[in-house]
């Protein structure tokens, strides 16, 4: 280990060095095409900013604000540059010929021209910001290039569950900023749950007076080891929700609200028990919990899972839901309203004389058809108001509502079936890594999660268009989404840790053509720069383990350990004496050799510490040179 290390190799690679050698110029998601040209554009104080777009000064202001932070000076804005004046031009001329949300960027030594309109021009500005290297002596040198870019999917979404835990508007806005930066255009806001109703509804004040408060939550993983009795509460006023819609729209993000029905409705039922088949029935708490049994009256649920108490399909319930949805539609102008539809147990409907009579009267052969009747009734109402519904894939059961879009979460089967029935589909299969509440590594250092395994590489590997579909059916796959359920996510920092870098991988599979996917370039060239940016901005993220470290045991006698920091500017510390690495371990500065004697093994343990102090989990690689196997029972 006694080696003089050069501190500047491997670890401290500047953002611009990455950008220069990176075929994607540091842009996430990777553009459709990037063609290098000759020369460079040198941005300095003499450069002017020219607005010839149809979008007012919004985009130039955005770019200029960024240039101030990057260069330390603002560019002078003008409509008409002098001939031969170095300029950044934002224009909509020719934008009508571009695909929806598309843009081009042309960099020559004289000009940078960003072409697009609306979302397209906004995305051109995001890409321009991402490809801009750091300044050197008050100049920013940008390589000449032609970029042509547009999205693979029109729906690029992410869902945030605010029912299990409530997150303030300030956080929602901070989150939306990052979605926009990565060209994600849909924020699916899961507003109602068994554990909390989070949106003010003026006609039904008890929804938030009662439904937005639960009096406790299990501690640790389900079924928990106790029930802490601190209330969890919070809701958005209609004005706050409107402000989120306005803020998102400024960044070309559509907010799709979700109002869950007929299941996951305990909070609504606790507020208005007549929405249940059995208004007088007490709440049943799962017998797996430490406080199992029945509780007097209806409850906002304090534990996780699926609950039998669901909406009764009565005229009163439909009136309630229509009134609620009227207020929802007045807040959210989105074409789509998500109506849930998942995990609705049929137990109460089976036991209810009212439901059984209704089924006879309507000629419905089972409770799945009753669920379909429920969804179709709501769909008809929404369609009559000019809106369309999205539902989780259970809405296929008992017959799909005629115009519904299906969100496929239980694998891809629901999405495949829906596309075959000529229905639009959003792919969000938990089994393919799109459930970003799942854990990001198998390390015991991971925080408490719901389980599962969804490292960002798994999302990156996913193609939302199933191969079994015909060319015609594939057109119904409108996009892809990642879901952040928050049973085990109480804090905004933890929400961010779950979201990043996985949302960056999502952005790439949602936007970039399949043939542009390149995990090595993504992980090793672009991601480190983007994570360093998040680090600097005070946005939490999951710090990846060192690039180049095997997560599988290696066999042999001589090993060269050649690592790279997964976050630009981060440090890697390591041990080979089984100790847990920290700042007091060896600092990795350059590749080194480890020799393991015959019949022995070593364990390389590393930790990455980002400039802010954020840490990775400990990563371990066993280096084995024929060490005898330790039998499981020998450990006892
Ligand atoms: C879901 O995860 N229940 C849609």
TrEMBL record:
<dbReference type="GO" id="GO:0030203">
    <property type="term" value="P:glycosaminoglycan metabolic process"/>
</dbReference>
<dbReference type="GO" id="GO:0004563">
    <property type="term" value="F:beta-N-acetylhexosaminidase activity"/>
</dbReference>
<dbReference type="InterPro" id="IPR029018">
    <property type="entry name" value="Hex-like_dom2"/>
</dbReference>
<dbReference type="Pfam" id="PF00728">
    <property type="entry name" value="Glyco_hydro_20"/>
</dbReference>
<dbReference type="Pfam" id="PF13287">
    <property type="entry name" value="Fn3_assoc"/>
</dbReference>
<dbReference type="InterPro" id="IPR025705">
    <property type="entry name" value="Beta_hexosaminidase_sua/sub"/>
</dbReference>
<feature type="active site" description="Proton donor">
    <location>
        <position position="343"/>
    </location>
</feature>
<protein>
    <recommendedName>
        <fullName>beta-N-acetylhexosaminidase</fullName>
        <ecNumber>3.2.1.52</ecNumber>
    </recommendedName>
</protein>
<dbReference type="Pfam" id="PF02838">
    <property type="entry name" value="Glyco_hydro_20b"/>
</dbReference>
<keyword id="KW-0732">Signal</keyword>
<keyword id="KW-0326">Glycosidase</keyword>
<dbReference type="GO" id="GO:0005975">
    <property type="term" value="P:carbohydrate metabolic process"/>
</dbReference>
<dbReference type="InterPro" id="IPR026876">
    <property type="entry name" value="Fn3_assoc_repeat"/>
</dbReference>
<feature type="domain" description="Glycoside hydrolase family 20 catalytic">
    <location>
        <begin position="153"/>
        <end position="513"/>
    </location>
</feature>
<dbReference type="InterPro" id="IPR015883">
    <property type="entry name" value="Glyco_hydro_20_cat"/>
</dbReference>
<dbReference type="InterPro" id="IPR017853">
    <property type="entry name" value="GH"/>
</dbReference>
<keyword id="KW-0378">Hydrolase</keyword>
<dbReference type="GO" id="GO:0016020">
    <property type="term" value="C:membrane"/>
</dbReference>
<feature type="domain" description="Beta-hexosaminidase bacterial type N-terminal">
    <location>
        <begin position="26"/>
        <end position="150"/>
    </location>
</feature>
<dbReference type="InterPro" id="IPR015882">
    <property type="entry name" value="HEX_bac_N"/>
</dbReference>
<feature type="signal peptide">
    <location>
        <begin position="1"/>
        <end position="19"/>
    </location>
</feature>
<comment type="similarity">
    <text>Belongs to the glycosyl hydrolase 20 family.</text>
</comment>
